[in-house]
Design brief:
Blueprint lengths: L5 E3 L8 E3 L2 E3 L14 E4 L4 E8 L2 E2 L6 E4 L4 E8 L2 E5 L3 E4 L2 E10 L2 E4 L3 E4 L3 E10 L12 E4 L2 E5 L2 E3 L6 E4 L4
């Protein structure tokens, strides 16, 4: 079955709540540019909490979650074993303001940003987030955490791995 499991794309606000179950086995359709295997968020601001997001696949970006031009709150999540062919095996975000809190992100895979990939003017806050064990060994340009032209606020976070930790930070004006 080729479908994103959950989609927010009609301007949903913070009263749109997704909570208390497992989002799994999604596969982003090519009609959605291959983005967001588990959860796809575009121009919306949902509250997503108390979920396990696992075994999802994106043909492009955001195996677990893809965010574009949104302001979601992601709290109390486990994001594990997701895959994206390009960017953000766990989460990929662009043009967004995102809070990620009390979340464990591990064993995801993507060519860039195995666990997290933030590009193009995001404002990201990570509070009490643990990131671990992503596979960045596939090629030389891979990373666990990829941040480009975005602001990152990290509070009480842990990033660890069994292989070489690879974090890529890029600016708009190199």
């Amino acid at each position: 079955n080729i479908a994103t499991v959950v989609t927010f794309e009609n301007g949903e606000d913070s009263t749109a709540v997704l909570s208390g179950f497992t989002v799994r086995n999604g596969l982003s359709p090519s009609s959605a540019n291959g983005e967001g295997g588990g959860i796809f968020i575009s121009d919306s601001n949902p509250s997503i909490n108390n979920l396990i997001i696992k075994n999802n696949q994106a043909l492009s970006d955001g195996g677990g979650i893809f965010i574009e031009s949104g302001n979601p709150k992601l709290q109390d999540l486990i994001i594990v074993d997701n895959n994206a062919s390009d960017n953000g095996g766990g989460i990929a975000a662009t043009y967004s303001i995102t809070l990620i809190e009390n979340t464990l992100i591990y064993n995801n895979f993507a060519e860039n940003g195995s666990e997290l990939h933030f590009s193009n003017y995001n404002d990201i806050t990570l509070k009490n987030v643990t990131i671990s064990n992503g596979d960045s060994s596939n090629n030389e340009i891979n990373s666990h955490l990829f941040i480009s032209r975005s602001d990152l606020n990290l509070y009480n976070g842990v990033i660890y791995t069994n292989d070489v930790l690879n974090v890529v930070l890029e600016t708009a004006n190199p």
